[in-house]
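Re: How this chain folds, sequence and tokenised backbone to follow
Notation: Tokens come from a learned vocabulary of local backbone shapes, not from coordinates.
Start of record: The labelled sequence and token lines come straight after this line.
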Amino acid sequence: QVQLVESGGGWVQAGGSLRLSCAASGSIFSINQMGWYRQAPGKQRELVATITVGDMTNYADSVKGRFTISRNNAKNTVYLQMNPLKPDDTAVYYCMARNLIRTTYWGQGTQVTVSS
């Protein structure tokens, strides 16, 4: 099992920035990919960004050039730097971890609200 704890969400005005953090614990040796998804009210959960153990990254087109995903292996933590934020970025952001047999684990989610 893998446990994920997110932090760093909040309220910000459009054009501002936030940094999300996700700390992993448990069977972390099996993780080969971590990332962030988000879900806005009335919409399906969607991919934001992912990063592999080899630091290969993938971003949704809507956040390319504005968001940056990174990881600190020593702290078993993945980060999402978001700047500049837009009102359309308002959502609950979920941390995700996936292991070699593609079992997926989710955090509890953190709210990000961007006002215009």
